[in-house]
Amino acid sequence: MLIILQARRATVENVQRLLDQQKLEDAFKVFNDMFDRVKSLTVFMEMRTEDSFLLEFASVNIPVTSRRNQAFRENAQAALEQLAVLQMPKTQELLQAVAAAADALRKAPQADVGGQSLTGPQCLEHFGREWRQLHLSAVRCRAIEWARISGIPEMTHPPRTDPQQIQLKDEILTQFYDGLGKSLAALIEADAQRAAETDVPDLYVRYLQMLAPLVADTSDDQLSLAVQPALEKLAGKSAVFAEEVKAYRTATHELLRWRERLAHARATTAATRFQPSDHALLEFFMSQGEFSGLFTASEDVPNRATLLASCPQIIPTVNQRSLEKPILVKDLVGLTGGKLAVARYRSRHYATLPLPDASAEVTRLQQDLLATAQQPALTLEATVAMNSARRGDCVAAGGAVKNFHIEGLIPRFAALRPEAQQLVALGPLPVEVIPLAFISHVLVRFDVEPAWVHQRYFFLNVAAGQGP
Known about the structure:
By secondary structure, this protein is an alpha+beta fold. It is built from 15 helices and nine strands. The longest helix is centred in the middle third of the chain and has 33 residues, at 239-271.
């Protein structure tokens, strides 16, 4: 026992010395190793005797733990700040690169971009990839900033956010989106000024093919409206080709409008039996009686999904409420060659679902648009229509909930993989209401078995196997 007592005093002195030297991890280990050994000897002691036996540790017990925890919080905060800086999207650099390429294309058929000599369409393809990477960085950066401004919580003080500390402002990305559309239009126009009449048809079609995936990945028509005048100027460099484009637009625009209205009408009728997913999210996870879910009874918009109980407590009740229930999901993007789709993130949820075989409908759409491998579509509208249909993009789908998953809001987006970035459309990021703290906030993924899908230009009833 005497040896233990001497070791106890030596340990306290050693721990104090390590604390003075700022070796906090070493101090924590040395203290707890000895404390556990001594504690094991007091198991059969009366409480007063035990307290007296452990009293010598009191002078370093609290400092060891509190200073180590404080150092951890500070290191974690510094790491988050560094990550946020690394992921901060370099919007001005991309705009400047596009402008430089446009200047070069006014003088020559190729521009030096990143050490490569690229044609105008190749420049557009390159900048499209850069935009997607920048957008992914923006999604990650915002989530990291949520963690950074929330701080690492202490046991006695709940975390709180300070919205004024957010460096990646929504208006920065909105202004960038507006500026990039104009810059890409300027690039096309610069290439058009220099292009020879004989080069116009091939150049025009290649621009359409590069633009279509970008337009499809945005959530509005801002990009297509920005580049349309430049495309018309390019086509106008050849009077004969401009007339061909005009005739094609006349032949296909009203057809697409008619197809869109018919698909919308059928989807509207089908949707009456399916609850919109944001409403379903509230209903499935609403707290009621003794059950605590993700929303309080006073909430009518699912923009603050928070764990009000543990997942094992939430899941059984939500299973009963949600499984096999019909829901309506919107804004779907096709993945894996049109075999799977994801309904983009909105209002603290997203969804995944397998896509039915729509090849027959895609073929009919292609025939209606008079498009072949030898004679591609001649308008951006038709090119986007074809690309989106092949990929499996859909306006909406109705189906039964087969499963659901609760995910942390920050981890989902802070570590978003490139292949999953379709969760968030190109352009401004989804608006989020800044809560007191993001740490406990979550989102939900629904797995849905579709009964029908509404592609923009056709409707497919999965159960009946019927198209338009």
